[in-house]
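Re-run with default settings, no changes from the original entry. Doing this only to confirm the output is reproducible before filing.
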Amino acid sequence: MITLGRLMAVPVTVWLILNNFLLAAFGLFVIAGVSDAIDGFLAKRWDQVTEFGKYLDPLADKALLVSVYITLGVQGHLESWLVIMVVFRDVMIVGAVILYQTMVVKLEMKPLVISKVNTVAQIILAALVLGSKGLDVDAGLFFETMMGIVVVTTLVSGLSYLTVIVGQE
C-alpha cells in the first residue's frame, strides 16, 4: 500500500513542478522518499516481502525519479544532458532485462549497491533542486557536487547492470 501511495504521488509531484509549486513538490518528494525507506524496512522487518512488491517497488522508484527529472529538465531546473543520462540509464536497464528474459531465460536481478547509491544520489539531487528553487536559496557547490555524484554513479551503475546481464548468459 505504501508503494502504491508513492506511485500515486508521481503525477501530483509532476503537476506541482509544472505549476511552479516547488516547495510543495519538494515536500511530497521527500515524503515519497521516506516512505520508500519505511516500506523496505517494514517489509523486511515483518517478513512481508512479496513477488508483487519486488516488481512494484522499483517501478515506483523509476516512475518517480524519471518523471521528476524529466519535469525538472523541461522546466529548466536541470541540465538536459543530465536528464537524458539519468533517463537513458533506466531505459537501458529495463530494456536489457526485458530483452534478456524474452530471448534467453528468466533473469534474476538483485539491486546492486552502486544502484542503491545512485538512487539515493538522484533523490538527493532532485530534492535539492526542488528545495532550493522552492525556498529561493542558492545551493551552489553542493548542487555541483551532487550533480557530479549523480553522473558518476549513473554511469557506473548502468555499466554494472549491463555486466551482470551479459554475465548471466
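The longest helix spans residues 140-167. The mean pLDDT is 89.
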